[in-house]
Design a protein that fits this description.
With 257 residues, the protein is an alpha/beta fold. The protein has one domain: Rossmann fold. The strands form 2 sheets. The protein has a 7-stranded mixed sheet with strand order 3-2-1-4-5-7-6, with helices on both faces. Strands 8-9 form a two-stranded antiparallel ribbon. Strand 1, helix 1 and strand 2 form a beta-alpha-beta unit. Helix 3 packs antiparallel against helix 8 and helix 4 packs across helix 5. The longest helix has 19 residues.
Length: 257
Amino acid sequence: MRWIYLSPHLDDAALSAGGWIYDQTRAGIPVEIWTIMCGVPKTKKLSPFAKYLHDQWGMKTARQVVGGRRIEDKHAAAILGAKTRHFDFYDCIYRQDANGGWLYSTIFVDPLPGEADLPRRIADSIAARLKPDDELVCQLGIGKHVDHVIVRRAAELLGRPLYYAADIPYLFNQPEHLKPNTAGMKKKVERVSKAGLSAWKEAVLAYESQVGGLFKNPLAMRKAFNTYCLSMGGMAFWRKIRSYSIGILGLEAPLKS
């Protein structure tokens, strides 16, 4: 049984579930992080929004950004003991319409009608690589990042049972988004070991190009994760009602009402 974490970008799975991924792999469970939106655009042109973000990351071309972030992702996954798979769909900052116009000038927006087929294409690409007994974890879409919403829609098109993890750091910044995104679901909290919490934070720091934009500084990041695990008693997962709870060894038992 593999556990597959569907990560919209090259950091989301580690941010949202790194501690439990570490504890799973240390328990001998095969874990893979499948990052969806990490393809290298064919065009060298960049939108003004993409140029602005590149400046923040200290890189010029999309190839540099995606290549550098893939290296960071492999480093973070190694800390957690997981394998990686990188898909070729583009990050929203690089996507264009049929006429070459840039689709997104912000990331916190509903998916555009022109991308209505994108979740299905992503779902088909994921489905082609799945095994019958794989367990899937996807993001809830807290924060309304367009790519997180699209990947959740794609995961739900697979027609398979799903576990959901809260999008971090968006959960920290917009906790009011949790309730509407988990409507009709049951929550199960899994304890994260001390070693798992430490590995979780180290994995987040491996995303050197991103961590400065996500947290005020490394100390603030560490405090946020410590507070989260202390307040939750570990890490929370959600499943739709009439689904199942999770055990650290991947064993399932019916959730109690």
